[in-house]
Structure formats: C-alpha cells, structure tokens
Specification:
- 18% of the residues lie in helices and 37% in strands.
- The strands form 2 sheets. Strands 1, 2, 5, 6, 8 and 9 form a 6-stranded mixed beta sheet that branches.
- The chain has one domain.
- The chain starts with 18 loop residues before the first strand and ends with a strand.
- The chain is built from 3 helices and 11 strands; from the N terminus they run ββααββββββββαβ.
- By secondary structure, it is of the alpha+beta class.
C-alpha cells in the first residue's frame, strides 16, 4: 500500500511544511446537550492526492478502487491513533481524553483525497458556561493543517466549524495562529530530512473554540 509519514506524505520540498490539509470540524452534541464528538473532514492537497491515486491505481490485484480507498483509510486511521489523532482538545484549559476514532470514510472529491472520521470524547461534556478549544496539527509541522478558508486564505469559511444539535446560544470561533517570527524562521530552515523541536507544529496551529451559555 502507500508509504507513510504520519499520513503518507512523500518528501516534497526543502522547507517545512511539505504539504497541507484543509480541515472542517463539526461539534456533535447528544440528546442531553453535551458535546460528544468532533466530526472531522480532511481534504489533502492536490499533489499528495495525485500521488496516492496513482499508487492506488497501480495496485496489482483485482480489488475495486472503493476497497483500496477503504484500506488506505484504515492505514491513515491506524497511523493517527499513534499520533493522538493529531487533535488536542481542552475544556477551560484542562485536556480532555479521547475515545477511538469511528465512522471513517475515504473518497475522492474532484482532484482531492478526502478523509472523514468521528473523534468521540472519552466522556460527553456539558459546555454550559465553559469554553472548549481544539487544535488539529502535525507536531513535526511536516504537514500544515488549516481550516477551510476563502480563496485568499484570510477568513475561514462558515462550514469550517459547525455544530449539530447544540443547545441554544452556543457559538463558535476559529482563531488564527500567530507564531513567533523565530519559529517561522526555524521551520523555513528545516530540510526535508530534519526534525525541528518537539511539537513545533503547535505554534502554527489554528484554534477552534466552542462556547455555550451557562
């Protein structure tokens, strides 16, 4: 199957990041009005998508493309499980535990490979009077992960962070990263074979916020 570097990215360029993912997130609430999961949709960059599709097309067996995409999705899910699902979630600054990823789906949308999954919380949480924040990022900053945005990337799209079955009055916000110029320079100087400081990617991560009235 496809070679992997966290998600399977081939070596692309001389400076970090080497590829990107456009993400959208939907906060899903249960019947009691508690947040129970973050449903995520990742659109891989066109170059990586092309490389993967060529590799899948060249698999020498009788399996259908749908079966091959399912196998790739399983590979991505298993890789993510060893990397904290590239997602960090906290409630008022206290990290929340995650359950195992479920409901995965891998497909081609136009020229982009799309991976979708549901990331449940270990326990549903009531958000009344609290602030939940999440960040989705590759710690190595090999891959840049940003919310779906308008054409010039200046503003996230409304569908980049939505809520399902949320209590009345809940609001969302996406906060852009403001990395220190020194971190930007550090990332730019990294060769494709180099490793930056641990968790370099956190300095470039956008923050999604979900707040519900108390």
């Amino acid at each position: 199957m496809v070679g992997v570097c966290t998600l399977g990215w081939p070596l692309l360029a001389s400076a970090h990041p080497h590829g990107w993912v456009d993400i959208s997130v939907r906060g899903e609430f249960d019947a009691q009005g508690r947040l129970e999961a973050l449903r995520q949709r990742w659109r891989m960059d066109p170059f990586y998508s092309q490389v993967v599709m060529e590799e899948l097309s060249n698999v020498d067996d009788d399996s259908s493309m749908a079966v091959r995409l399912d196998a790739l999705g399983t590979e991505i899910r298993n890789n993510l499980a060893t990397q904290h699902n590239l997602t960090w979630i906290d409630l008022d600054g206290r990290e929340l535990a995650q359950a195992e990823v479920v409901d995965t789906n891998t497909e081609i949308d136009g020229e982009r490979l799309v991976f979708q999954f549901v990331l449940p919380l270990a326990q549903p949480v009531a958000l009344g009077g609290h602030l939940l924040r999440y960040r989705v990022f590759d710690p190595t900053y090999y891959i840049e992960m940003v919310h779906e945005a308008n054409a010039d990337g200046s503003q996230p799209l409304p569908e980049a962070l939505t809520l399902s079955n949320a209590p009345p009055g809940c609001t969302t916000r996406i906060v852009k990263a403001k990395p220190d110029p020194q971190k930007v320079m550090e990332a730019a100087m990294l060769d494709k074979t180099d490793n930056g400081e641990p968790n370099l990617g956190r300095f470039f991560a956008e923050t999604g916020e979900i707040r519900c009235p108390g």
